[in-house]
Amino acid sequence: MKRLVLICVLLLVGICSAETQTWQIDPNHTTSQFSVRHLGISTVRGVFEKTAGTVLYDPADPAKTQIDVTIDASSVNTRIERRDNDLRSPNFFDVAKYPTITFKSKKTEGTGQGKLKITGDLTIHGVTKEVVLDVDGPSQPVNTMGGVRMGAEATTKINRRDFGVNGAPTVAGDEVQIILDVELKRAAGK
User: Fold this and answer.
1) What are phi and psi of 85, to 5 degrees?
2) Residue 140 pLDDT > 70
3) Dist CA 104 CA 53 (whole Å)
C-alpha cells in the first residue's frame, strides 16, 4: 500500500512539473538584432533596444510552446543617429504610424535535441506575414537572481519589401537576417 501511495505521489509530482510554464522576456538581457547589405558591399547591423513579451513553455512537450513578442520600432539603433532617424521615418518603419513590430506563434515543432522550428505571424510596418524561426534552445533553466531563467536564440530571414519597407532601394538590400537572443525569466516555484 505504501508503495502504491509513493508511486501515485511521484506520478502527480511528474504531472505537475510538466505543466505549461509562463515565462517573461527579460528586456535587459534580450537582444533583437538585424543585418542587411549596404550597397551590396558591406553589412549594416542594428538592434531594437526594447523587446517585451511572454512565452508559454511545457518542458515535457515543447510543441505546445506559444510566443507573443512586441518590439518597440522606435528603439532601432545602428549606432548612426542620421540612419536611425531615417529608419524611424516613413521611408522605412514609419514608427509614428506603426510603433511596434510583433511576432505571434502559431505552431511549434521539435527538430532535434535542443532545436525548435516556430511558425508564426510577424507584423512589420502594418503588414503581417508568416515566418519560421529556427530556434536553438531553450537552455536548461537556472535558478538565479531571485528566480528562474533560461535562454534561446532564434533566427530567420525576411524580404523587407514583403512588409512594405521600401526605402533606399538602391542602397539597402532586400534580404534581412534577424537574430533574437532571448533571456526568459519567471519567479521560482511557478
Assistant:
1) -65, -40
2) yes
3) 10
Nearest to 120 by CA among 49, 165, 70, 177: 70
Which 8-state DSSP code applies to residue 49? S
Q: How far apart are CA 73 and CA 102, in angstroms?
A: 10
**Distance, CA of 93 to CA of 163 (rounded, Å):** 10
* Pair 139, 148: CB distance under 8 Å: no
C-alpha cell at 71: 518590439
Report d(CA 173, CA 69) in Å as an integer. 25
Confidence of residue 18 (pLDDT cuts 50, 70, 90): low
Of 151, 148, 159, the C-alpha closest to 135 is: 151
Q: How far apart are CA 171 and CA 146, in angstroms?
A: 47
| pTM confidence score | 0.87
Extract the C-alpha cell encoding 125: 510596418
